[in-house]
Specification:
The complex is a heterodimer of chains A (about 650) and B (about 325).
Chain A: H1 2-45, H2 47-63, H3 67-93, H4 100-109, H5 114-122, H6 131-142, H7 149-152, H8 160-176, H9 198-214, H10 218-235, H11 241-258, H12 263-277, H13 284-291, H14 295-310, H15 318-362, H16 367-412, H17 416-462, H18 464-478, E1 504-506, E2 515-517, H19 582-592, H20 597-615, H21 621-633
Chain B: H1 2-28, H2 33-44, E1 49-52, H3 59-70, E2 74-78, H4 85-89, E3 90-96, E4 102-108, E5 115-119, H5 126-138, E6 140-143, E7 146-149, E8 155-160, H6 173-176, E9 181-184, H7 190-200, H8 214-226, H9 231-243, H10 253-258, E10 259-261, H11 265-281, H12 289-300, E11 305-306, H13 308-313, H14 317-327
Parallel strand pairs in B: 1-8, 1-9, 2-5, 5-8
Antiparallel strand pairs in B: 3-4, 6-7, 10-11
Helix pairs in contact in B: 1-3, 2-11, 9-11, 9-12, 11-12, 12-14
Classes of the chains: A mainly alpha (about 650), B alpha/beta (about 325).
């Protein structure tokens, strides 16, 4: 009996172990079937994204699509990828048929559902199993060892895999393929050096030289050297137009950073100081010098006052000293008071502004009256703000001098020696300001020259070669070589309407530097209208030897009657025999040079007047350049 | 565990008996293995078979041989248009006793045999046909007020000739449904014909011996009923059955187009019982999908009714069923 039970137990254990084996084999087969399904679906759908990728890559390579096009293609590519993913996900998530693995095993091995039936019956509770069921389970278990899930569910390569492989290879090939596009490249930019006439280069060299000689401020000297280098580079044709403007812009920017452009604020501060110092007889000379911006004189006057205070003899009396103290004290506070006054006035205006605003809010009908007042009020406030800003700036610049003066005032009643030292320090401060002002003047001068240079280049480049020609003509006229207008032509090169053989040569005369300016090539016989030696008959102003015979149609009235009744009067000077002989006069002039100091003086006078006119906006902006250019051209040359 | 061994022994015995049965029948019947297995399946499934084939293919011989081998009571009824129900069921006669006196006695008709051969069943009138079919279904006959039970095993084999349709009364669908299998008897091959001629045109006369007793047959029928069917197999049989209906979920296009009405649930019963018998034939303890597939044609061909279009196109129901078996996967989620 015991033996039978033992046999039964062993048999059960073997059976359960065999069922486990069956189950594992069935599960493995099921997993393989799932994988095969996913693989098959992937192969079926993969041609879609791959095909799209090939298409997109072809488009990108063939048509050189831009970033936007590529991005759109990429976005569109999401669709086939999504289809693939959804298709695969659907297979993965699909409900699997029951016993798929075991049925596949049965089918492959020809077991007539022995495995599946055994697994099915094994789920029936043991007591409920019929003998036939048990026998069927054991029958299934008996074949468990021979099961081969790998062969039963082979993962076959679907026919679509060929297409996938072809597409993948195509994609790889495309990605490595370099599509060459022939592109019409713009011709390489030729280096066209900036052209500047030798005369102008000489002008700017002179400017640089002059500034260098005047200046001893290291910063200003650096700027001048940079300017000089720029001029030299232009002269050597080392720079093109773009580089020239860039370097000029850099230099200008650096200069502007260093120059205190609000010099007026300092001048006002000095004037305020002068007004207070004038109240004392002892500081009157210094006040006058400060008022006239003669800082060196002011320094000198202060030093003299300091010396006077140091000396025991001839010292000012107490009343004078008290006046001096008061003047110094007030002078030291002048900027401060000015600021205070501005603040007071601003406060008053603000109050007024508020009341006007309130009035406007309460009486909307009164708007017509209050609006101009409000606007005026706002303008005044803005002006005060500007004044305040300038006063603050001035105070900042004058702060050291103010401190010295205040200290001098404090020390004056205690110790005149100490006060004298304070005044000397104040004088030193004025000296510093004078130097600073001189340096800034030089920088401003350099800035001005830079601006002139820029304007010259701008004008030259504005109208192309025609403008160059016009400027050249202008230069000739300015120097007295031209002026013939169209009636007289432009010299031998163009006489008779022949084709010019070379560039137009500009120069101030024999021995001078010649600058070649390229001119437009014209065909033979197509030169500008010439008039040779005939009297000017054109409609424009001419300078021929005879009177013009034409008539400008644009002018009203009849043509000039050349047969006017005029009288020629000849006044002959009487030779008194006094003075030097003519030969002596010519010799003397030659010794001094024909363009001598007299012309320089005349030039300077005229230029000063012209600059004043320019600064007063009396010259229209379009002509300013020509006025300045005229003076550049007719400047006296050494 | 001893139960399993016993089951194994029973199945083994079943196989032996079937082997012997086949061998003995084979001594008389040449070839027709599938028809023989089909007939045996019907018998072991406690049901009836309809044999269809042209005359002279040995249908009657097969049934006669079977009856001889099984040692069961056998009767043959030749159906004719003038055959009356009483002719097959039997009738009540006035019996004059020797001792005197008269009694009404029921004289059993040929239907009261274990194996009944209803030859050319479609030649009888529907009235007579229905009398037979009632007996087939109920395994009993009611005459007057008395019900007469037919002895088990009861197995009717009806034959019909597909060619001579004139003057016949085709069996209605409801009556066809009562046949477990409809077996088509194929024309013998050349070799089989040689063997048939050798056996029938010489002096050789083969006497079959009795192989099984009535009890053994009943025991085998009981064993068939005990064969378990796994859920997936049963599910497959049901799905096949559903697929024969044009509105079935898994019905193929051919069914949707050419089938008027699909098989009744008796079709599934026939498939599964046939599958069980086949499993036992193979010495297996459970029916399989393959068994269902093997029995599907015989079990369903007379139950699938073609539409007019199908008839006109000459679509055979066998083709429809084969299409279903081909398209239907073994398992479904």
């Amino acid at each position: 009996m015991l033996h039978v039970v033992r046999v039964l137990n062993l048999s059960r254990m073997a059976s359960s172990d065999g069922i486990g084996q069956l189950r594992r084999a069935a599960e493995r087969a099921g997993r393989r079937a799932s994988f095969a399904a996913v693989f098959s679906r992937s192969m079926l759908l993969l041609p879609l994204p791959l095909g799209y990728a090939v298409f997109a890559l072809t488009l990108v390579k063939a048509f050189r699509l831009g970033q936007v096009g590529q991005r759109n293609l990429l976005l569109l590519g999401v669709l086939p990828v999504l289809v693939l993913l959804l298709g695969v996900a659907r297979v993965l998530l699909a409900k699997r048929p029951a016993w798929r693995g075991s049925l596949a095993l049965d089918e492959f091995h020809g077991f007539h559902d022995r495995v599946t039936s055994a697994l099915t019956f094994s789920q029936v509770p043991e007591p409920e199993r019929s003998p036939m069921m048990q026998a069927a389970i054991e029958d299934g278990v008996a074949v468990a060892r021979s099961l081969d899930p790998r062969r039963a569910v082979p993962v076959r390569i679907p026919p679509e895999a060929g297409l996938v492989a072809v597409l993948a290879l195509g994609l790889y090939g495309l990605s490595t393929l370099e599509v060459r596009h022939y592109r019409q490249l713009p011709p390489p930019a030729s280096f066209e050096p900036m052209q500047m006439s030798a005369d102008d280069i000489e002008l700017f060299r002179d400017v640089a030289k002059e500034l260098q000689a005047k200046n001893d401020d290291p910063n200003a000297l650096v700027a001048v050297r940079r300017f000089n280098q720029l001029v030299e580079d232009i002269a050597e044709h080392r720079l093109d137009r773009h580089e020239v403007f860039q370097r000029m812009g850099d230099l200008e920017r650096d200069l502007k950073d260093n120059v205190d452009l609000d010099q007026d604020a300092r001048d006002e501060g000095l004037k305020g100081l002068a007004r207070e110092l004038e109240k004392s007889g002892l500081t009157k000379p210094a006040a006058a010098a400060l008022d006239e911006k003669r800082l060196a004189d002011a320094e000198k006057a202060l030093r003299e006052l300091a010396e006077k205070l140091k000396k025991k003899e001839g010292r000012p009396n107490a009343a004078e000293l008290e006046k001096l103290r008061q003047a110094l004290e007030k002078a030291s506070r002048s900027n401060e008071e000015r600021l205070k006054n501005i603040a007071d006035r601003r406060r008053e205006l603000e109050d007024e502004h508020k009341s006007l605003l309130k009035k406007k809010g309460e009486q909307p009908d009164a708007g017509a009256n209050t609006d101009p007042k409000l606007a005026d009020n706002e303008r005044r406030l803005e002006r005060l703000d500007r004044e305040k800003s300038r006063a603050e700036h001035g105070q900042k610049q004058m702060s050291e001098l103010d401190q010295q003066l205040a200290q001098a005032a404090r020390d004056l009643m205690k110790d005149s020696q100490q006060s004298a030292q304070d005044l000397e320090q104040g004088a030193q401060d004025i000296n510093r300001m004078a130097k600073q002002e001189a340096s800034e003047e030089q920088k401003k001068e350099l800035l001005k020259k830079l601006q002139e240079m820029r304007e010259l280049m701008r004008q030259q480049g504005k109208g192309g070669k025609d403008q160059m020609q016009r400027l050249a003509k202008f230069g000739q006229r300015a120097r007295g070589h031209g002026g013939q207008g169209q009636g007289q032509g432009q010299g031998e090169d163009q006489a008779g309407g022949q084709k010019p053989n070379g560039p137009l040569r500009l120069g101030s005369g024999p021995g001078s530097v010649t600058v070649e300016i390229p001119v437009a090539q014209s065909r033979p016989g197509e030169g500008p209208p010439q008039a040779g030696d005939k009297p000017g008959s054109g409609q424009e102003q001419g300078a021929g030897p005879g009177a013009g015979s034409g008539h400008n149609k644009d002018l009203a009235g009849a043509a000039t009657d050349l047969k006017g009744k005029t009288h020629d009067v000849t006044a002959a000077g009487a030779d008194t025999g006094q003075g030097a002989a003519s030969s002596q006069v010519i010799f003397g002039a030659a010794e001094r040079g024909f363009v001598g100091r007299g012309y320089k003086q005349v030039f300077t006078d005229y230029q000063t007047v012209a600059e004043q006119a320019l600064s007063k906006d009396e010259i229209p902006s379009g002509y300013r350049f020509y006025v300045r250019r005229y003076f550049q051209l007719i400047r006296p040359r050494d | 565990m001893p139960d399993a061994d016993q089951a194994r022994e029973e199945v083994s015995e079943f196989q032996k008996q079937i082997g012997a049965l086949r061998e003995e029948i084979g001594r008389v019947i040449v070839g027709n293995r599938e028809v023989i297995d089909g007939v045996l399946s019907c018998m072991l499934g406690s049901s009836h078979a309809l044999l269809e084939g042209v005359p002279g293919l040995g249908k009657t011989m097969l049934v006669r041989t079977l009856a001889g081998v099984l040692g069961l009571e056998f009767s043959r009824i030749q159906f004719t248009p003038d055959l009356m129900p009483a002719d097959i069921i039997g009738t009540v006669v006035l019996d004059e006793a020797v001792a005197g006196g008269r009694t009404l006695e029921f004289r059993r008709g040929p239907i009261f045999a274990n194996i009944v051969l209803a030859d050319e069943v479609n030649r009888a009138t529907p009235k007579t046909q229905s009398a037979l079919l009632e007996a087939m279904q109920e395994h009993r006959v009611t005459v007057g007020r008395t019900t007469h039970t037919i002895q088990e095993p009861y197995f009717v084999l009806a034959t019909q000739n597909p060619l001579e349709m004139e003057g016949t009364y085709p069996l209605p669908e409801a009556q066809l449904d009562r046949f477990f299998f409809k077996l088509e008897v194929p024309f013998p091959s050349r070799d089989e014909l040689h063997a048939i001629i050798d056996r029938t045109t010489t002096e050789q006369h083969t006497e079959v011996r009795r192989v099984l007793t009535r009890e053994q047959i009943l025991s085998m029928q009981a064993l068939v009923r005990r064969v378990p069917v796994a859920r997936h197999v049963q599910d497959y049989a049901i799905r096949v059955l559903q697929a024969t209906h044009p509105n079935g979920e898994e019905a193929p296009e051919l069914v949707k187009r050419f089938v008027r009405t699909g098989a009744s649930p008796r079709g599934a019963q026939a498939m599964l019982l046939g599958a069980k018998v086949r499993a036992l034939f193979d010495g297996r303890f459970a029916a399989s999908i393959d068994d269902v597939k093997a029995t599907a044609l015989a079990a369903l061909r007379h139950r699938v009714l073609l539409s007019f279009e199908g008839e006109a196109e000459g679509v055979a129901s066998d083709r429809v069923i084969a299409e279903i078996l081909k398209k239907l996967p073994a398992s479904k989620e």
